[in-house]
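Researcher: Structure for this, please.
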Amino acid sequence: DGDGEDEVDDRRDAPGAKSGSGGGPGAARDERKRAPAGAGSGRMSRIYVGAGRLSGIQPKSLVGAITGESGITGKQIGAIEIADRFSIVELAEEVVEDVLQAMRTALIRGKKVPVRRFVEKQ
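Model: Predicted structure, token format:
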């Protein structure tokens, strides 16, 4: 009977359904967060962005601003951490200086925000 098969197909395609391909819009996003994919040497560095969750910052707004202003590709961006008042973005080492230069005059969500190399406090 064709009706029963349609139900099975609907469940397989339902949001949140398990699939062997690991597909779905969230799959690529999760993979990007876990596996930094720096180009070239593979070395990654982090930058501090002086805007966070309370300013409405989302990963897509950071990626859009960085790629749009500096001309790098999304593959040169690794993990993104967003706190309430700041964000940390992992970048391929070879593009950090270019990104910092470009972002000094850039607007993120319509605001100029400080951007600098991230230095972990010891």
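Researcher: Any notable elements?
Model: The chain is about 35% helix and 20% strand. Confidence is low (pLDDT under 50) at residues 2-40.
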